[in-house]
Write a structure and sequence with these properties.
This protein has 338 residues and is α/β, with parallel strands linked by helices. It has twelve helices and twelve strands. The chain folds into three domains: 5-54, 434 Repressor (Amino-terminal Domain); 64-166 and 302-329, Rossmann fold, CATH 3.40.50; 168-298, Rossmann fold (3-Layer(aba) Sandwich). Helix 1 packs across helix 2 (16-23). The model is unreliable at 55-59 (pLDDT under 50).
Amino acid sequence: MAITAKELSRQLHLSEAAVSMALRGKPGVSTATRKRVLEEAARQGYDFSRLKEDSAPGADLMGTLYFIIYRKHGAVVADTPFFSQLFQGIDTGCKKQHYYLNMFYLDEGPDMELRLKQMIHFDCKGILLLGTEMVEGDLLPFLKLEVPLVVLDTYFETLQADYVLINNIQGAYLATDYLISRRKSQPGYLRSSYAINNFQERADGFYKAVRSHGMSTAKSKVHLLSPSLEGAYADMLELLDAGEEPASCYFADNDLIACGAMKALKERGFSIPRDIAVVGFDDMPDAACMEPALTTVHVPKQYMGQAAVRRLAQIIEEGQEAPLKLEVSTALVKRKSV
């Protein structure tokens, strides 16, 4: 009796959908997986006339991926264009890879392992975890799950996992190098008052650029501001009203901080960029609409989301030989604030 697609899937430890797509030459499975399925089908005498019979409704879909947004304090992970564009990329990636997508918010709290087990259902083939606000210990319960996992927007040196994130050091270096080259003076730093890995890496890039120009890092003025437009505006106003003399140019951890600080500086009579130049990070849509338009670091957010889905699909279909750290390059967008 000829083998069926269901039996092939069981023998090859693949989903029925993956086997069906490989047999029919549909996109959504890797070349290696397709070759493996076809070779085993031929070896066991699979009857290709059975393809229509074996193709159940939904066979084109590989299963469901979960996009989990972890919130520790909510100060950075919020309803902003950055995260909406990242989600669009993930959604597009899931469609290209033939997966359903479910999205969940998960707040920091007790009994995380139990809450995760209750959240993860049998239909979950893999998890895309937004770890922007995470610290190392927060990731441990996810690593205990027997589910393929890709972590987005953060990286931990001591924890083995697949990561897809921004090249923060590169972006901050490009921005600071440009500031120094244009202003010929010591740059200041508008730093987030909330510590997350991304901002720490941006600090590394900022100070690396300062050193590369032969300047002392200790001489750069650092202002701790809330990582939101209104928060940064209020914090910067408070500093200026307390008599703080601003630097001639600043790199900001993100566009929201940059825009909030610019608003405060202008209200206190400073002209941008004549008196003070500012560079942000993220290239939010509103950055181009500021007066003046904000020079910033562009992050291909949708591409990052699609890259994370591709990596997760590869792990699901082919297994994981070794975890990867994938860094998405940035580009400096020169506008009028410098």
